[in-house]
Write a structure and sequence with these properties.
The structure is a single chain. By secondary structure, this protein is mainly beta. The protein has one domain. 12% of the residues lie in helices and 47% in strands. The chain is built from three helices and 13 strands. Strands 1, 2, 3, 4, 5, 6, 7, 8, 9, 10, 11, 12 and 13 form a 13-stranded mixed beta sheet that branches.
């Protein structure tokens, strides 16, 4: 069983690999990631999907800065994508509402490939979330500005999304290393940096909220 996907732990990444092994698709994406959501610090949903959110909902914006990537032969390097979701208090109850913004610099072919990956149509980590989505609110092109400067991460997507989060460095940590979640169930990865929102204005696809908490990573990597 050495090297077999079937023998690996059932993480989102390994489940994705098993799915794509079966259907024979191939794609890979690498880059940085930032998110902010409506929960207070920290988001119970990130601790576990079956924990209730701080409020009667969890509204979250997921932003992917793709430094290099290829989807079924189409180069998508240098493009950006954001997904905004409105979920019930307990995420596993499903019926999520989801909207997607794709980099305005993307060609029609690149948009098509990216949307298929990020809505789970081509398998991968997002395929594990697809059954929870009850309504896709739309897909729009937009201008993106994404900046990663040390522990601060800022995002602007058209006129709809504008936020900045800062990774949390615990008091007394002389190395300056921020605190991380390890072993979490999240489509981006199982080891992400904890952050808090410093600025937030989000109003997209009828979803409006103030971001309070966040997550980031300088290196996400999906491949199948």
């Amino acid at each position: 069983m050495r090297g077999s996907v079937d023998a690996l732990p059932k993480t989102p990444e390994n489940l994705a690999a098993q799915f794509l092994k079966e259907v024979g698709m191939a794609w890979s994406l690498k880059g940085s990631y930032a998110e902010t959501c409506s929960c207070e610090l920290m988001c119970p949903c990130n601790l576990s999907f079956d924990h209730g959110a701080t409020y009667d909902y969890c509204r979250v914006t997921l932003v992917f800065n793709i430094r290099e990537g290829e989807i079924e032969g189409t180069d998508v390097s240098g493009l950006k994508l954001a997904a905004i979701a409105d979920t019930p208090k307990v995420m596993t109850d499903g019926n999520w509402k989801l909207g997607v913004f794709v980099d305005e610099n993307a060609t029609d072919e690149q948009v098509d490939k990216l949307v298929k990956v990020f809505t789970g149509q081509l398998g991968g980590p997002m395929a594990g979330l697809a059954p929870l989505v009850g309504e896709v609110l739309g897909v729009e092109r937009a201008a993106f500005e994404v900046a990663d400067e040390g522990v601060r991460h800022s995002v602007r997507v058209g006129d709809a999304i504008d936020f900045e989060i800062e990774d949390i460095v615990p008091f007394g940590v002389e190395t300056g290393e921020p605190v991380r979640f390890d072993g979490m169930f999240h489509p981006v990865g199982s080891d992400l940096t904890m952050a808090e929102a410093k600025r937030s204005r989000i109003d997209a696809f009828g979803i409006q909220y103030e971001g309070k908490t966040g997550l980031s990573t300088s290196e996400f990597s999906w491949a199948a």
